[in-house]
Amino acid sequence: xxxxxxxxxxxxxxxxxxxxxxxxxxxxxxxxxxxxxxxxxxxxxxxxxxxxxxxxxxxxxxxxxxxxxxxxxxxxxxxxxxxxxxxxxxxxxxxxxxxxxxxxxxxxxxxxxxxxxxxxxxxxxxxxxxxxxxxxxxxxxxxxxx
Length: 146
Hints:
- By secondary structure, this protein is an alpha+beta fold.
- It contains 3 helices and 8 strands; from the N terminus they run H-E-E-E-E-H-E-E-H-E-E.
- The radius of gyration is 16 Å and the shape is globular.
- Pfam families: PNPOx_N (PF01243).
- Keywords: Oxidoreductase.
């Protein structure tokens, strides 16, 4: 069952475009950031400017959480992911190239964007994933530890 659920999670990640990333400021204030992402298995990557608050927050505290969900008014059809993990800045050149290729495949507009020396790639490795599917039962969710 766990492998089937992991496959559902990987498919859900690859079929969606945006996540809502939660970070905590050095002062303890929570912040939410809507971001485009790409995934490789259960690991997600987001590109951002290196001077953003989210990067400052991650440098101080790499523990993050994010959600990916549907925009459906029917509460009994809710499907979503709730993920807790650790974020890090990608510095490995081969990983950056590979993720860049995944990014262009998912978001073709990225191929037309000029290189930005202020841009960095953040990698989020999950520790716990909750898969919500209210079509099974209202409030239904399954936990996967990674």
